[in-house]
Amino acid sequence: MSTHTVLGQEVQMPVRIRLARAFMASYLVPADAAQQLIDYSGLRVLRLPGGRAMCSLVFVDYVDGDLGPYNEFGVSFMVRHHTADPAARFGDIRALATNQAGVLIHRLPVDGDFTLAAGRGIWGFPKELADFSVRHDAGERHGALHQDGKLVVDLTVQQGIPTPQRRNTTSSFDAYSHIDGVTRCTPWRMEPSGMRARPGGATLALGEHPIAAELRSLRLPRRAVMTSTISRLAMTFEDAVAI
After folding, report:
1. Whole-angstrom Cα distance, residue 126 to residue 119?
2. What is the CB neighbour count within 10 angstroms for residue 11?
3. Which residues 6+ apart lie within 8 Å of 77 measured at CB?
4. Which of 1, 10, 21, 190 is the most buried (most CB within 10 A)?
């Protein structure tokens, strides 16, 4: 079991999040535009039919965990696993269907100094400080993110229908990150409950911040392909490995 020192405090691995809650909107965007945005990572976006890629916007409220309470906003892309055979026929579609794809965390603003230092120092997550106004406890979820006095995003997600609860709801996948010229892979395990989902269901406004300009470059469609809310979420993060 490894240990990291963050701002004078010891953090033992794996890091456990005992309770969080989240809402998310996912969009199909032009794969070429998404690839251009993430070329810095050396990874390849998962290419879906119609020349599309999956981009997700998520607000997470970390209520109880090893890094303390904080808010987080993520911009992520579904990507090919770094070990995948690029010549495999229908490999991208098969990876998505079998939950074998990876997720590149492209942007990750937070509102806490400790989680910022831990995220960047332990996993290489691109965390940066921002201001949050979020509502997780209503049927209509809402999150607004500001940085340097400028609006980044304002996202409202309508509550969907309950998703079937399997006996074992644990899902594992690899999260990718890139800072300081290094791409890393982190095993990430999630145990969600109280999930609701629906097609569409998102209202998104973009501000004048550079991150908003990035999202505009993706030509996000007016309608999300899917939205979801999670009322109870446990997570475990292992040590990162440089690839």
Report:
1. 7
2. 18
3. 34, 37, 38, 45, 46, 53, 54, 55, 56, 103, 104, 106
4. 21
Helix (H) or strand (E) holding 153: strand 150-157
Give the number of other CB atoms < 10 A from CB of residue 19.
15
The per-type count for the chain, helices as H runs and strands as E runs, is: 4, 16
- Determine the Cα–Cα distance for residues 59 and 71; give it in Å rounded to an integer: 7
Length of the chain, in residues: 243
pLDDT digits (tens, 9 = 90+) for 154-210: 999 999 999 887 666 678 889 999 999 999 999 999 999 999 999 999 999 999 999
DSSP state of 46: P
Residue 150 sits at φ, ψ, to 5 deg, of -115, 140
